[in-house]
Amino acid sequence: MAEPVYQVFALRYGTSGPRERRENFIFADAHEAGVPLDYYVWVIRNEHRTIVVDTGFNAESAGRRGRRMVTEPVVLLKALGIDGAAVSDVVITHLHYDHAGNLGAFAKARFHMQDDEMAYATGRHMAHACLVQPFDVEDVVAAVRHVHAGRVSFHKGSEEIAPGVELHRVGGHTDGLQIVRVRTAGGWLVLASDALHFAENRLSRNPFPLVFHVGEMMEGFRLCERLADGEDRVIPGHDPAVLAKWSHVNGHADIVRVDLDPLHVGWTNEAAKAPR
After folding, report:
1. What is the DSSP string of 36-98?
2. What letters, b where the CB count within 10 A reaches 16 and e where it falls short, cover 198-214?
């Protein structure tokens, strides 16, 4: 019996304003221009199942944090024919505001997260301003409510949640950050989420500055590379280059299918130069 394979989509729902390079890389030259952060949710699907990866931020968080909502994540999902309220499985890579907002829009979903992430988001480290800042307390409370409602599947380390879909704890950016490994027709693909915000973080071994454990972030780069079948199958979490590297779906400016062969080799940030 053939192993199941999946299509994988990146959906850009938001963006930031201009950022200095030091905001994106620990080792930064002040004379070099930075690029904005783009914000994505992802979809993994085949004829048997649909899995959503992360739920994005909401309008209230966007306004408070100076981010621009391009399109609400649930509206983008509808462009792929997906009703968020009917989705059965949602992977939460970590509980930062831009990955775990809108949990209420997925009324039937079971949420998959790492034990370490829930412990981190509700434990002693949240007493430190620099670590708690990327969390929205209402998102964390909503996640806790889902735990008590029996709607969270906890994972520890590496685990297969469906044939051809694996979760792997990375840590680094947060204590319980996880990545998603997906079997596609072209080989294994890794949705790296914030294991690397930009492809350059990994390629230059230059971490993103918002980090809980630098050593784990560096090892996470290696893990992503080891789990993926090729350079173009490690998908960064916030890189504008994703939109320029793959074909857009049905002409939609903010949805690309990343399991297909890329339009060009290598990683550039041409998408960041377009009007935002």
Report:
1. PPEEEEEEEE-SS-EEEE-----HHHHHHHT-EESS-HHHHHHHTT--GGG--EEE-S--SHH
2. bbbbbbeebbbebbbbe
The CA distance from 85 to 105, in Å, is 6
φ/ψ of 34, rounded to 5, equals -95, 180
Closest CA to 227 of 182, 162, 173, 163: 182
Alpha carbon distance 69, 62 (integer Å): 6
Question: CA 197, CA 109: separation in Å to the nearest integer?
Answer: 26
Q: Tell me the whole-structure pTM to 2 decimals.
A: 0.95
Number of H helices, E strands in the chain: 10, 13
Map tokens 């004829």 to a residue. 47
pLDDT tens track for 152-210: 999 999 999 999 999 999 999 999 999 999 999 999 999 999 999 999 999 999 999 99
Tokens of 128: 């430190």
| Size (the chain), residues | 276
pLDDT digits (tens, 9 = 90+) for 128-157: 999 999 999 999 999 999 999 999 999 999
